[in-house]
Write a structure and sequence with these properties.
The chain is built from eleven helices and six strands. With 433 residues, the protein is of the alpha+beta class. The strands form two sheets. A four-stranded antiparallel beta sheet has the order 2-3-5-6. Strands 1-4 form a two-stranded parallel sheet.
Length: 433
């Protein structure tokens, strides 16, 4: 767990998320459940073996055939049977069911892989948001410090009779606003920290500091390829698309499984049975049970479906509808994939261009602020002009910080939507599960 005031690194955050996330644990359970289903279906192909036994103390009346008199009697009866059966042919329904479960297992594993990628992406995105909010707080703290210094200067000039009281009141209001802005920034940071803790699967807390990572590690190289080529690559790499393809194939096996209802069924069976009754005079239990009453049988049962009230026909129709739905879901995922990749690349390229713009604006705003501060000290500009210049500088500083971290997030987003986060995991010295 994250301890009080602990410094949390990005690598630690990702490791904790992969270990603690409840949603990922649920997906792991889904894979384990699918593995059990496959194992059970395989064993269903084996012969079964069962033994049944029963014993009773019976009470009835016996009638003498010569005298016609009846008498109450009691006797013991015991019976047992050892039996086994194995299906020889059922229209290949068992093989189709096994293939269906294997495909479902493959889909569950691909879904788990995508869930891991999603968790890593969300963790890194939320971590970067915390870093962004931490950096913005430093700007707000610097702004508050500068406003307090200016307020002291104005108070000194006002007491010396060099400035009007309106400047003092205005700067007092600006300083109060700077204090409020800092409180708002701290609140935003705390909310971002809580969201990150929730993503990690830990108890929500704000008592930690996010360490600034080596951003070069997160700067994945993106080849300048055609959008269609990137989309085609994603259709191969994206685990969620692979999972849905498995679902389509599994639906085809379910159709085969339903069609088996039209075909004959052949079973091989074997039976060994015996019984004992205390009414038989002169024979001990071992004589009756192990010799006299012992019997065995081996045979084949053959059944042909003639009329099942259209159950098989309806099952096939339902399975075909389910298959069409899975195919439509796959189509939707493929269309959504193209949209996601296009949007991610466009946002990344836009932010790249924005970086140069905000850097230029920040340089200009810094120089302008310095100029107005000097001019205000010598009475060549008004406090209103100085305040406006400081506001422009703050806005440019915020934009510069936001754009810098946005570029990292969007570069990772492109890799996530392409379905290839392995280079990032390797850069963070994390192995894919």
């Amino acid at each position: 767990m994250v301890q009080a005031e602990q410094v949390l690194s990005l690598e630690q955050a990702v490791r904790i998320a992969l270990k603690k996330s409840p949603s990922l644990s649920q997906q792991l359970n889904a894979v384990e459940s699918a593995e059990i289903s496959v194992s059970q279906q395989r064993t269903d192909l084996y012969p079964d073996l069962k033994i049944t036994a029963s014993g009773a103390e019976r009470f009835d009346k016996a009638i003498d055939q010569y005298t016609g008199q009846s008498e109450n009697r009691s006797f013991t009866s015991i019976s047992s049977e050892l039996s086994s059966s194995v299906n020889l042919f059922n229209g290949f329904a068992d093989l189709a069911a096994l293939k269906n479960f294997e495909l479902e297992l493959g889909a569950a594993r691909e879904t788990l892989s995508r869930a891991e990628q999603t968790l890593v992406f969300e963790t890194i995105s939320n971590f970067i948001q915390v870093l962004t909010d931490q950096a913005l707080i430093h700007v707000d703290e610097e702004n508050l410090t500068e406003n307090r210094k200016l307020l002291e200067t104005i108070e000194t000039f006002y007491q010396a009779g060099k400035l009007a009281i309106s400047d003092l009141y205005q700067q007092q209001a600006e300083t109060k606003q700077a204090e409020l802005d800092l409180l708002e920034a701290q609140r935003t940071l705390n909310l971002s920290k809580l969201v990150l803790m929730q993503t990690l699967g830990l108890t929500p807390t704000i008592r930690y500091q996010a360490a600034i990572p080596d951003l070069e590690k997160l700067s994945l190289s993106l080849a300048d390829e055609d959008l269609d080529q990137l989309t085609l690559r994603a259709l191969v790499n994206r685990s969620d698309v692979k999972a849905q393809q498995r679902q389509v194939e599994a639906a085809e096996q379910q159709i085969r499984q339903s069609q088996a209802g039209h075909l004959p069924k052949v079973d091989l069976f074997a039976r060994l049975a015996s019984d004992y009754s205390s009414l038989v005079d002169g024979n001990h239990f071992s004589d009756q049970f192990m010799d006299d009453n012992l019997n065995a049988s081996v045979g084949i049962s053959f059944s042909i479906p003639l009329f099942d009230r259209y159950l098989t026909r309806n099952n096939i129709a339902q399975a075909k509808i389910a298959q069409r739905n899975e195919q439509l879901t796959l189509k939707q995922k493929q269309l959504q994939l193209g949209l996601e990749i296009s949007q991610a690349i466009q946002e990344y390229r836009t932010t790249q261009k924005r970086i140069d713009v905000v850097e230029s604006k920040l340089t200009s705003a810094r120089q302008s602020l310095h100029s107005y501060e000097e001019r205000y000290r010598v009475g060549a500009s008004t406090l209103v002009e100085l305040t406006q210049s400081r506001t422009q500088y703050l806005s440019a500083a915020f934009d510069q910080i936001q754009a810098g971290y946005d570029l990292v997030t969007q570069k990772i987003a492109v890799a996530y939507y392409l379905g290839n986060l392995e280079p990032l995991l390797a850069a963070l010295e994390l192995e894919k599960s």
